[in-house]
Design brief:
The structure is a homodimer.
Chain A lengths: L7 E7 L2 E8 L2 E5 L1 E4 L11 H7 L4 E3 L1 H6 L3 H6 L3 H5 L5 E3 L3 H6 L4 E4 L2 E5 L6 E4 L1 H11 L3 E3 L10 H21 L6 E6 L5 H13 L4 E4 L8 H11 L9 E3 L5 H8 L5 E4 L1 H7 L2 E2 L6 E2 L19 H5 L2 H9 L3 H27 L3 H9 L4
Parallel strand pairs in A: 4-14, 5-6, 6-10, 10-11, 11-12, 12-13, 13-14
Antiparallel strand pairs in A: 1-2, 2-3, 7-8, 8-9, 15-16
Helix pairs in contact in A: 6-7, 7-8, 8-9, 11-14, 13-14, 14-15
């Protein structure tokens, strides 16, 4: 018998690090998990079959971008995001709030929602909690996010006001939601302020979401402040629900935050770096446009199991980058995604075998 | 026992259409064959494993471009073009002459060779027959082309002069050649003039090349003139050697020229069209940016066996094109290559089964 959708099986703990399986209508997500980002319903330059081969088990798509183009209603008519983008595994959509609030000059926020101008054509739109849920239901991802307000992390007054809205909006999102095949995550806010974070974690825990995101991090605070926030919310969130740290995607952050109970991550970093010609390796970032690589017969990283490293040299990929050939972006994207997905698999394995702290220590001596 | 390299087994004729197998050090090429073009040592946007999956058996690379960037000597030091670009099947390089002669403002031709400026950085270079063979030997393709002069097809005086050079250069290329694992093709020139084409075919046939290209076509003459040139040279070229029509890649041209004894083709058309958002189908070209496709749930072409058509709708690919997503170029490239490669496979099958004329007639009623 299949477990009910959205049950989260916690399989092991090692310290506060957790390994589990999150069940969704489109398959199991082993956690901790890193989700590649497919902003416009495509992980840039990477076909879905390559994502499968890379072992991706969750893909993120951006509600703001898809709402504007091609439109959530169009995607619904085309059978939803899974069918539309040809990815039959689990998908997560954000609420679009982060993108909208980033449009500083062209949005106005009130207690009911936020009005903003499209970055594509300047047209005027409005997101309310109810609207965002409607859009996310049209898109049809397995995991959907509540609309929240992400405040500057160090501004106490702003965070107090934003938290009131975030909590009211979380309740409105819950009420607006109609689909049983989607799990709505609540988002803990509160900046760097312990009491606000505690208040937020308790308030949202009471609403009994199937999962929780920790928002407002990796947006300007220090690493120490980020870690402290996770230390504060970890004991307050229900143990049997996955915790998602949005927009985080460096190996160092994986280790430090898995150690603080985080189960889910997403980040544009691997594919964005690839398009800028940078490759992630255990020896640090490699600039694939560097003339020093012109006759480098090694793969991007020795011992790497990805398609790019199995078949192509740094010299070739450097040539592709110099010649602005799409294949260069593809190969670098494949490699960088493999690097993060494989690191996360090894982190999970270390939690399952009780060797997480040792593995974290080993990896600390490497440069990323 | 493996046949010696570069033997050409003529398996069947149907009228003047031919089906055969051309043996090369990197594998067999079933003919007639269409070769995707990988100008800068990559078929644009298409990884080598996808080319294999598409059934490509020959890839063309451009000597002019690789000579300039990353340099033929660099590629030689990296183990040659096959290793460099991760394609272990047969490769063909052109002589670079066509590109150089196209640089009208920035090249000067004399009987010894041609001096030209790089389109990349304006640096000055010189190609002679000996230099081109040295470059092609550095690149290491299985099939290499002699340096020829491609004259405007209707200019009698120019063609007389160019033909003298082309023939002298063909002899010099043969003398300069040192590698036994490469087959040097002679190139028949002579514009639209029967006597010049006859003279060229006889002269080159006497030099006993392992294969022959018919040059100076698809560059401004009419289709009727192109067909007539092929009619003239067909009986004069050795039956046991493959004939290559350079730069031709439409389905109509495939049928009309296979019917006139052509065995090999290459063209940038399928990948270039893809980057411009056009897809080849049996019902004609489809503009993948067209708003009429916004909610078109069909594949690019019904019944097509390619990866793009098996997994993605026109609506999705149109969205990718609108959003300038690389995946759109990839999927359109895959489809267009499949379309031409598959058409050529079906042409070959029809020659083998003696149904070429019938198949040609059936396809004539379709729009491309």
């Amino acid at each position: 018998m299949n477990p009910a959708p959205f049950t989260f099986d916690l399989l092991a703990r090692d310290g506060r690090a957790r390994a589990g399986v999150f069940h969704t209508p489109h398959g199991e997500i082993p956690t901790p998990v890193f989700a590649p980002v497919g902003t416009a319903a495509t992980v840039k330059a990477v076909p879905p079959r390559d994502l499968k081969e890379l072992g991706a088990t969750l893909v993120l798509a951006n509600t703001y971008h898809l709402f504007l183009r091609p439109g959530d209603e169009l995607i619904a008519r085309m059978g939803g995001l899974h069918a539309f983008m040809g990815w039959d595994g689990p998908i997560l959509t954000d609420s679009g709030g982060f993108q909208v609030f980033s449009l500083k000059e062209i949005r106005t926020i009130d207690d009911d929602g936020v009005t903003f101008k499209s970055h594509i054509d300047g047209s005027l739109h409005r997101f309310t909690p109810e609207k965002v849920i409607a859009v996310e239901e049209h898109l049809g991802a397995d995991l959907i996010m509540a609309l929240d307000e992400c405040a500057p992390p160090l501004d106490r007054a702003y965070n107090e006001q934003a938290l009131r809205r975030t909590h009211a909006w979380a309740e409105r999102c819950l009420r607006a939601k109609t689909r049983a095949d989607q799990a709505l995550f609540g988002i803990v806010q509160g900046g760097v302020f312990d009491d606000l974070r505690e208040q937020s974690a308790r308030f949202l825990a009471d609403l009994d979401f199937p999962g929780y995101a920790v928002g407002g991090l990796a947006v300007g605070e220090t690493k120490e402040q980020m870690h402290h926030v996770l230390d504060v919310v970890d004991p307050l969130l229900p143990e049997g629900k996955p915790r998602y740290l949005m927009g985080v995607g460096t190996v160092e952050d994986f280790f430090e935050t898995v150690a603080r109970g985080v189960d889910m991550f997403d980040c544009v970093l691997p594919t964005r770096l690839a398009r800028h010609g940078a490759a992630l390796t255990h020896g640090g970032r490699v600039n694939l446009r560097n003339s020093a690589l012109a006759e480098d017969a090694r793969p991007i990283e020795e011992g790497c199991a990805c398609y790019a490293c199995h078949h192509f040299t740094r010299a070739y990929i450097r040539h592709l980058m110099q010649a602005n050939e799409i294949l260069g972006l593809y190969l670098a994207s494949i490699h960088n995604l493999h690097f993060l997905l494989d690191t996360m698999r090894r982190i999970r394995e270390s939690v399952l075998t009780g060797t997480f702290t040792q593995f974290k220590h080993e990896m600390r001596n490497q440069a990323f």
